[in-house]
Amino acid sequence: MTKPINYIAENDTDERWGLTVCSVGYQCVAAGESYPPACHNREYLFNPAKGRTLLEYQLLYITEGEGVLTTTFGSERITAGDMFLIFPGQWHSYSPDPKTGWKEYWIGFRGENVDIRVERGFFSAEQPVYHIGKNERVEQLYGEAIEIAGSQEPFFQQLLAGVVNHILGLMFMAGKNNILRSPLSTRRAIPELVDRAKKRIEQAVESDVSMPHIASELNMSYSTFRHLFKQYTGLSPARYLLNLRIYRAKEMLRSTEASIKEISYTLRFDSPEYFTTMFKRKTGLTPSEFRKV
């Protein structure tokens, strides 16, 4: 690994890309060692007792040890396998436990690409910690970012932006999956149950099976089933089924001579008119228009 701490200047081209990296690094803080180490640039040094604010996002991954993160929304214990996201303009403080120290990776960045995700609720300053556990791929990506920042080849910022997006995606996915892995009476992980539900819904594309019936097959109440399914897939079970039916309708319109009425009833729409309305809402075309394209 090249120099473990890199501070990076951006240019206008980098900023137009939508995401630029300001700093990236790794450090191992031994038990009892002062924090943060004095090797940082002055703008990044801070007194943990007083905290600080930054003009960028910072994403930290703690691979060993433990400590505490404090923001305006409260304090949270940080342990190995945790990632936490600091937001621009947000007062915060964090430090390892003097008894354990910790090993940390961090990357600082800013740009409208991340701002939009925050605005749309993917990331929140109120819930900055993600419990992802030991993740070798995330560690590798931080290492790659340090290497790229150390070499600073032409247009390296665009490559770093891709690494940041990859890390954010892995963190979001792993954090959500771990939240969903709560024990049920069946002792199956929620993702496994949702996968079973998805397969069962796929079998219902041309049948009248109801979502409450599928929930019952999985030994869950419908409200719990709907909530967990939407958390995991981003769609309600009914919306997921509708999307599958529209996809199947496209296949039938392209590969068969079945009438619009026949397709609507085969796919269990209430009426041809309702089928046409939903199909156009999803595709921008009526079934007849789609067939002619």
What do these coordinates show?
The protein has 293 residues and is an alpha+beta fold. The protein has 2 domains: 5-180, Regulatory protein AraC (Jelly Rolls, Sandwich); 190-292, Arc Repressor Mutant, subunit A (Orthogonal Bundle). 45% of the residues lie in helices and 19% in strands. The protein has 11 helices and 8 strands. The radius of gyration is 25 Å and the shape is elongated.
Helices and strands, with pairings:
Blueprint lengths: L4 E3 L4 H5 L3 E10 L27 E15 L2 E6 L2 E5 L5 E5 L5 E9 L1 H8 L9 E3 L4 H16 L4 H25 L9 H14 L7 H7 L4 H12 L3 H19 L4 H7 L5 H12 L3 H6 L1
Antiparallel strand pairs: 1-2, 2-7, 3-4, 3-5, 3-6, 3-7, 5-8
Helix pairs in contact: 3-4, 5-7, 6-7, 9-10
Q: What features would you highlight for this structure?
A:
8 strands; eight-stranded antiparallel beta sheet; Jelly Rolls; alpha+beta; single chain; Arc Repressor Mutant, subunit A; 293 residues; 19% strand; 2 domains
